[in-house]
Design a protein that fits this description.
- The structure holds two protein chains of two kinds.
- By secondary structure, chain A is an all-beta fold.
- Helix content of chain A is 0%, strand content 54%.
- Chain A is built from no helices and ten strands.
- Chain B is 0% helix and 50% strand.
- Chain B is built from no helices and eleven strands.
- Chain B starts with a strand and ends with a strand.
- The chains are: A mainly beta, B mainly beta.
- At the A-B interface, strand 4, strand 5 and strand 9 of A face strand 5, strand 9 and strand 10 of B.
C-alpha cells in the first residue's frame, strides 16, 4: 500500500470560485479514490477513477488522472460553504489498504 | 439505514480500564477496517480484516485487538487504556476484491482521563 500526497495542504477560496487540489503518488495503481471529511465527521467516498481512465465527473466534481506523471487532481466547481472540509486521495492497487496522507484543508469563504 | 454504524459515539473512561467499540456494516462487504485519527487529524490504519486474513499495522500496541463474530461486525477491544489512546476511531468497510470505495462510520471519540 502507498500513501498519496495532497497539495496544497490548505486552500481558502471565495464561495462560487473553483477549487483545485492535487495528489501525487509513487508506484503504479489500479485506481485512485478521493474522500472528503467534514470537521468531526467520518470520511465520505467522493469518486473513484481507474487507471485506464483519464477524467471522471460527478456533479460539481471533476477528477483527472495522469498515470505517466503519477498524479491526480480534484476540481470542485462553483464552491459552496458546505464544501469546507479536508480532502484526501487514496492511490490503490488491488488488495491494497488505504493509507491516508495529511489531506488538503479547504475553506470556503463567504 | 446506516451503512456502517459504530457505538458508542463518545466514550470517556479512566486510564487502565478495558473498553470495546462496536462496528457493524449492512453493505455485505467482505473487508472491514479500523482507523485512528489523532489530535493532529492524521488518519492511521490499525487493522484490516476479512474472513480470511487479519492484517495488523505493526505500530499498533497489542493492547488493541479486533474481534469479528461474523463478517458484518468488527469490534475493537482495548486493554489497559492509556492517555495517548485518546483519539477518534473510525470503522470502515469495503468490497475488497472489487477494489471499490470504503464506507466509513461516523467515528467514536475516545477520551481517556
Amino acid at each position: 500500500s502507498q500513501q498519496g500526497e495532497e497539495d496544497p495542504q490548505a486552500l481558502s477560496i471565495q464561495e462560487g470560485e473553483n477549487a483545485t487540489m492535487n495528489c501525487s503518488y509513487k508506484t503504479s495503481i489500479n485506481n485512485l479514490q478521493w474522500y472528503r471529511q467534514n470537521s468531526g465527521r467520518g470520511l465520505v467516498h467522493l469518486i473513484l477513477i481507474r487507471s485506464n481512465e483519464r477524467e471522471k465527473h460527478s456533479g460539481r466534481l471533476r477528477v483527472t488522472l495522469d498515470t505517466s506523471k503519477k498524479s491526480s487532481s480534484l476540481l470542485i466547481t462553483a464552491s459552496r460553504a458546505a464544501d469546507t472540509a479536508s480532502y484526501f486521495c487514496a492511490p490503490l492497487n488491488r488488495d491494497d489498504k488505504i493509507i491516508f496522507g495529511k489531506g488538503t484543508r479547504l475553506h470556503i469563504l463567504p | 439505514d446506516t451503512a456502517v454504524s459504530q457505538t458508542p459515539k463518545y466514550l470517556v473512561t479512566q486510564m487502565g480500564n478495558d473498553k470495546s467499540i462496536k462496528c457493524e456494516q449492512n453493505l455485505g462487504h467482505d473487508t472491514m477496517y479500523w482507523y485512528k485519527q489523532d489530535s493532529k487529524k492524521f488518519l492511521k490504519i490499525m487493522f484490516s480484516y476479512n474472513n480470511k486474513e487479519l492484517i495488523i499495522n505493526e505500530t499498533v500496541p497489542n493492547r488493541f485487538s479486533p474481534k469479528s463474530p461474523d463478517k458484518a461486525h468488527l469490534n475493537l477491544h482495548i486493554n489497559s487504556l492509556e492517555l495517548g489512546d485518546s483519539a477518534v476511531y473510525f470503522c470502515a468497510s469495503s468490497q475488497g476484491a472489487r477494489g471499490g470505495g470504503y464506507t466509513f462510520g461516523s467515528g467514536t471519540r475516545l477520551t481517556v482521563v
